[in-house]
Amino acid sequence: MLALAGENEVELVHVSGTQLPFEDGAFDAAVATQVYEFVERLTEALAELHRVLRPGGRALVLDTDWDSLVWHSSDPERMDSVLAGWRRRVADPRLPRTLARHLREAGFSISSSETLTIFDVHGEPSSYSARQIEHLGASAAGVDAAVIRAWAADLRDLASSGDYFFSLNRYLFLAFKAADERPNDHD
Fold first, then answer.
1. Domain count, the chain
2. Residue 89 CA to chain centroid, in angstroms?
């Protein structure tokens, strides 16, 4: 992402989510897509997000509840093993269930929330779900490489035979910082 940003005159900065190097109220808006499910110190990270937004600023937060993943496999036990390995890679694989509360505790109000479902019955190589075969497989902690290869081959075979099914929910929260709030009101 940093390399792509350089090509498009966009400045990206790699920082810790719990210590943002920006002034209070520096931003009008923030977007976090599948970020907070990886953050172990969520309370601190959301407090920092709140701090760097100006009064009236908005945050769009999208994360996945990995228990919402439904992926057809000819070997459900192997599928469960791979997905369990993936869930071990994130700090909270079920974050959306408590994210509204966490955002409110950080000082945000939630103006809207919705579910975005990724649904695929084809498994075309360029689809999100087909690309996740490589990503999840490469990231599944504690799963034998031979199991990963067999799992991936099975999913590709199911796509070729017309028996493919993938569904995943992502949860979107639009939160805002009160317009009349002054910086450091929540310190």
1. 1
2. 12
